[in-house]
Amino acid sequence: MQRRHFLSLLPASTLLAGDPGPRLRPALCAYSFRTDLASKKMSYEDIIRYAAEHKLDGVDLTVYWFPSTEDKFLYGLKKLAFNLGVEIYSISIRTDMCKRPGAEADKELAEARKWVDVAAKLGAGHIRVFGGAVPKDSNAEEAAGWVVQLLGRAAEYAGSKGVILGLENHGGVTDKAETIVDIVKRVNSPWVGINLDTGNFKTKIYQQIEMIAPHAVNVQVKVDITEDGKKGVSDWDRVSKILVANKYRGYLALEYEAAENAMTAIPGHLVNLRKVCAKYSS
Fold first, then answer.
1. Contact (Cβ atoms closer than 8 angstroms) between residue 249 and residue 216
2. Any idea where the domains of the chain sit in the sequence?
3. Can you tell me the distance from the alpha carbon of 36 to that of 134, in angstroms, rounded to the nearest whole number?
4. Which end of the chain is more exposed for a tag (fewer CB within 10 A), N or C?
5. Where residue 5 falls among pLDDT bands split at 50, 70, 90?
């Protein structure tokens, strides 16, 4: 979904105000502390407090280690975030949409709907989803068609709850920018866009980012990239220029996956992230 589709959802008074200019908002993906969350050294409450301490606007809560989806837990997180001035703007879930129509696809749909309900309760307007791996007995074209069908069905329910689904470029059926853009265009829903992960392409990285940028509804930045087998540092300035040129207004969330210990490394990267966001915001 291109960002102009969102304009159709805005009130006329907003549109008459003209182009509001670029705005990038610093955020943190909970997955950055995956080891500590998995071992219970950190809680999701700790993630929200950490974001507030480091002057971030929002958090993307990867749900893999949620201790519960009961209201008591979800509303507790929501209240804590509100009190600390941090927005739970997104959750990230596991999905595999490369499923032939039938029982398995229906099961995936039911799971996605469950997390849409969770996002709505948290006040999160976005969910990161995966396309999945192409089955060995299929091909990329056929599998992409299945993703279109399943993502479209999921979008109908997500839209009824006011939640946007961001399909991530995450290998498998979404390995190439042209494929993921084609999927989103074929779904053709104002509730579906692309969750752009700047570290997941392995060749022609910035060219592929440019192709995706007009359809981005959320952006995750990595510290490192690997292009054609060569490891390098992700150029956040270059990424930001591409986003601004495509009128992206939204979050720039650090998803830390580098080798250095997260506790010692992340604070410095968040300083840089805040600077980049301020630099490219009007």
1. no
2. 21-279
3. 31
4. C
5. low
**H or E segment to which residue 253 belongs:** strand 249-254
Mean pLDDT of the chain: 94
* CB count in 10 Å sphere of residue 217: 27
Q: What is the pLDDT of residues 164-196, one digit of tens each?
A: 999 999 999 999 999 999 999 999 999 999 999
As a whole number of Å, the CA-based R_g of the chain is 18
User: What is the enclosing helix (H) or strand (E) of 209?
Assistant: helix 205-212
Phi-psi category of 229—alpha, beta or left, where left has phi over 0 and alpha has psi -120 to 50? left
User: pTM of the prediction?
Assistant: 0.93
Question: What confidence score (pLDDT) does residue 247 get?
Answer: 95
18 CB neighbour count, 10 Å cutoff: 7
- Alpha carbon 58 to its chain's center: 12
Is residue 25 within 8 Å of residue 277, measured between CB atoms?
yes
Is the CB of residue 265 less than 8 Å from the CB of residue 40? no
- CATH 3.40.630.30 for the 21-279 domain, yes or no: no
Cβ distance 169 to 200 under 8 Å?
yes
CA angle 113, 114, 115 (to 5 degrees): 90
Give the residue-averaged pLDDT of 158-168. Answer: 98
Which single residue is written with the structure tokens 């799971």? Answer: 111
Give CA–CA dist 139/173, Å, rounded.
9
